[in-house]
Amino acid sequence: MREGKPSLTASIVALGRALYEEAPDEFSPTRDEHASSVLPAGMRALSKLARPLWSSSPALARQAFRLMTFGLSEHVALRTRAIDDAIERAVREGCAQLVTLGAGLDTRPWRMDALREVTAFEVDHPSTQQFKTKRVDPSGAKARAVRFVSVDFTKDSLSERLAAAGHDASAKTVWVLEGVSVYLPRAALEATLDALSQRSARGSALAFTYVPKAVLTRWSQGQKSIDAVTSAIGERFEGLLEQHEVRDMIESRRWSIDCDEGTREMAQRWMKAVDPDSVWERERVTIARSVAP
Question: What is the mean pLDDT of the chain?
Answer without folding.
Answer: 88
